[in-house]
Amino acid sequence: MEISLKNICKSYDDPPQKVLDGLSFTFGDGFTFIMGASGIGKTTLVNIIAGFVKPDSGEIIGMEGKKVSMVFQEDRLLEWETALTNVTFVKKEREYATRLLTQAGLGDSLHKKASELSGGMKRRVCLCRALIADYDVLILDEPFKGLDTELKPIIMQMVKEHAHGIIICITHDPAEAEFLGRDGSANMVLDAQ
Asked: Of 21, 51, 122, 150, which residue is 20 to 30 A from 15 by alpha carbon distance?
């Protein structure tokens, strides 16, 4: 399975700024990491792939009929619902959702409302929600931000175990790319420019 970007260009008007200029790249199965300085178009790129933003020019080949699951930079949880309900909202598999949340260290917080969870706990709920969905393409936009140092490798291992298909991960941390791609499953790192 592959997704190919051909000469993708995108500019924003106010102030005029070209963020993607003739970008071509092919994503295959496994992890591909997008890295680079803030403001160079990483989130714009994944939003184009997901279909939330239209490029000014260029084309995407291979997204027809593909299902996308995404962890956004913002948590985007149903704050009035429980951690478990936030995960089963996308797929009604209560047992698998419970297993994922427990693996993420949230077994004692399944029935807490999202509004009662800390930032790191919310991030873990978002990851569980993205992993349980039916998808061909998993997009992770800085998925591990806000996680403490001890918890981060546990959560990265969980993602590595459960993620499948084409996985596109934006990160500022080369150690995350090294950890997730350690078994050789990673595609090349794309430095979005």
From this structure: 51
